[in-house]
Amino acid sequence: MSVEQTQDTIQAYLEGRMSAEELRNFEAQIQADPALAEEVHRCRQLRVMTRHEHLLQGKQTLAAVMAEIDITPDYGQHRRYFDHSSWFQRWLPGLLVLAALVSGGTWYYGYQQRQQTLARVQSVLEPLDNIIGFSPDDPGSAAAGMRAYDQRNYPEAIRYLSTAAQESQDDPSLQLYLAVSYLLQQEPARAEPLLRPLTQTDALLTVPARWYLAVCLLQQGKKTEATPLLDALEEDVVYGEKVRRVRG
Predict the structure, then answer these.
(1) pTM
(2) What is the pLDDT of residues 155-203, one digit of tens each?
(3) Long-range contact list for 234-242, CB < 8 A, 24+ apart?
(4) Do 57 and 129 fall within a single domain?
C-alpha cells in the first residue's frame, strides 16, 4: 500500500467511513504494526489541532493584547486603602498587633472575672441543712445517704442517695440533697438536671433549689442563666447575703 493509500485509509478510519469488516481488518493491522499505529495517532492529533485552531489563535491574540495593555484598577473613593503609600498600608501591621492585644486583653479580663466569681461562689457554697428525719437504725438507702451527707462524706452520700432517689422518685428532697452532694464534689453538670425541675415544684424546696441551681450555673460559667435566679433571691432572708457576696 502506497503512502497516499495509507493516508486515505487512515482518514477514512478517523472519519468513520469504513464498513464494519473494513474497520475490523484495519484495527487488526494497527495492533500488528507499531509504525502504522504511530501514524494513526499523529493524524488523530493533527485533526484535533486543526479542529481547534481558531481557539488557539484566539488564546494567542488575547495573550498579546493583555501584554500590551497596562490595566490599572479604579478603586474610586476607596483608592487610599489600596495605595501602597497610604497610611493604611503603612500602619496595617501595627493595627493588627493592636487588635490582637486588645482581643487578648479582653479575653484575659473576662477570664479573671470568671475566676473571681468562681472563687466567691466557692466561698459561700455550704451544705444544705438536713431537714429529713431518719432514725439512727434505719437500714434504708435514703437514711444511709443522709447519714453520709451529715458526715460530709459526699461520695458515699451520692452512692446511697442515687439509689434512694430512683426508689422514691416522688420524693424531691432526696433529689435536692443528691444535687447538693454533686455540687460539693465539684460536679455541677450532674447536679443541674436534678435541680431544674425542683425550682418549679415544692414550695418548701423552691428557694434552696434556685440558690443551688444558680451556684451550679455559675460553676459552669453560665452567668447569663444564673442572673435571673440571683435577682429573685437577692431579698431573701437566708440567701440574700450569699447572693450579694457572689456578686461582689
Answers:
(1) 0.54
(2) 998 999 899 888 887 788 888 889 999 988 889 889 999 888 888 876 7
(3) 236/207, 238/207, 239/207, 239/208, 239/211, 242/124, 242/211
(4) no
Q: Total structural domains in the chain?
A: 2
Cβ 134 vs Cβ 177: under 8 Å: no
Domain span at residue 235 reads 123-247
Q: Compute CA distances 227 → 96, 178, 187, 224, 244, whole Å.
A: 35, 24, 20, 5, 12
Residue 213: closest CA among 233, 187, 191: 191
Alpha helices in the chain (DSSP H): 3-15, 20-32, 34-51, 53-68, 79-82, 87-124, 141-150, 154-167, 172-184, 188-195, 203-219, 223-233, 240-247
